[in-house]
Amino acid sequence: MAVVVLIFHSSCKGESGEKMLAIEHSDSIAVMSTFDVNTIVSDSGRISYKIIADEWRIYDKRQPPHWAFEKGVYLEKYDREMNVEATVKCDTAYYYNEQKLWKLIGNVDIKNAKDEKFHTRLMYWDQEKEKIYSDAYIRIEQADHQVTEGIGFSADQNLTVWQINNTKGIYTIEE
Question: Is the pTM of this model over 0.85?
Answer without folding.
Answer: no
